Amino acid sequence: MSNNPLLPANIxxxxxxxxxxxxxxxxxxWLNANESPYVKSIDISINDLNRYPDPQPxxxxxRYASYAQLTPEQVLMTRGADEGIELLVRTYCQPAQDSVxxxxxxxxxxxxxxxxxxxxxxxxxxxxxxxxxxxxxVTAVGNSKLVFICNPxxxxxxxxxxxxxxxxxxxxxxxxxxxxxxxYIEFCPEQSASKLINDFANIVVLRTLSKAFALAGLRTGFTxxxxxxxxxxxxxxxxxxxxxxxxSIAASALSPDAITSMRRQVSILNALRAKLKQWLExxxxxxxxxxxxxxxxxxxxxxxxxFTIALExxxxxxAFTLYGENDWLRISIxxxxxxxxxxxxxxxxxxxxxxxxxxxx
Length: 361
Known about the structure:
Blueprint: E1 29-31, H1 58-68, E2 75-78, H2 80-92, E3 99-104, H3 109-116, E4 120-125, H4 126-131, H5 134-141, E5 146-150, H6 162-171, E6 177-181, E7 203-208, E8 221-224, H7 227-236, H8 244-253, H9 256-282, E9 286-289, E10 296-301, H10 305-312, E11 315-322, E12 325-332, H11 336-360
Parallel strand pairs: 1-11, 3-4, 3-5, 5-6, 6-7
Antiparallel strand pairs: 2-8, 7-8, 9-10, 10-12, 11-12
């Protein structure tokens, strides 16, 4: 318990989000944070850093609006999609009164943000979202003000069909905002809910440049919604959330040529993901491979010590506890050379398993 009398009484109950980088692991091949393996070389020249930046830089907003096929009034630039999550909770939820609905397992920042703002969590399941009827989902959501749907879902990769998102939004019109987190949507762009925004005042889409755009270090995201939904958020956001340097790099990343390059890289990564899934499904060291989208594959290990062996080889992946079991692993789709290190690890595990079987027989 904290001895600082200035801190709120519930501060000790809060749990910080445990990011991939917070685990302080060491290694040579990093496939634990769903980062792009593509390195960008950026040349910028800025001579007005003595001036405050445009709070919502027009060059970036206009380009992202064009990319998302929306109007500039429907786009808000944020410090990563995480700030979008925080702004939605802070703007639309009353502390100690409202709740947000989550379909677990899912991205951990929804819960961390709600807890920080003393907003209750309505714990639902991915199984309900994927297999339940719309009536069952709406009943379970109850009076929750925000309904977070990570699509594709992190860490499972599961995808909620657009028709189901639309049906949920229809049933919860004037009752809740449906927040569709599309951090990984570039890997399955035809599934984006952004095309629903013009028809649904209660659909909000979160986007990022961290994944497919290979700019995780830039911390740039976007909140997409009808102008009337974004208007109150614009009252809450910090006065200068986007630095001049970030805006310049983001605008460059959203040029037509850069978007074409991004899509080409996504095509390569999707092909590599398919190859990785084949390796995993053929390996006796893997009990289950989850089918899904995104730049990662999540799997259940036959022996959780296999993760330790990977670390000893300098191969860093993301260990998870899912469904109450601590033998799950998420592998980011890296370069072909990086995934070859995964293949070497898998082959070594298979050889060890074969050797042990021969010894037993």
